């Protein structure tokens, strides 16, 4: 029983570490200056810049679309992490309950009554 709790906690820690890593990468990417090896967009209004206005617009549009997708992915990851975190707390409360008729059901992540099978909030 303790190994399942340990595995869930490690899963939660891993999820948090991934979110921190993604945030660190994002900060580093935004802080990068315009160097020879990086991609920079400059428009001087005469069409002789690094990219034309149309290419810059398309690049910005693509960035905005992927930003929305990244936000959705991050939101989903946060929801999954919160769900797993709540389940660990609920399991600890269920296993520590003074009610001897309670047991933790790992598949449904619920604390149930041994006699009726109904959900219990310890």
TrEMBL record:
Pfam families: DUF1283. The keyword Heme does not apply. Keywords: Signal. Residues 1-31 form the signal peptide. Transmembrane segments: none annotated. Belongs to the UPF0482 family. This is UPF0482 protein SYMBAF_05730. It comes from Serratia symbiotica.
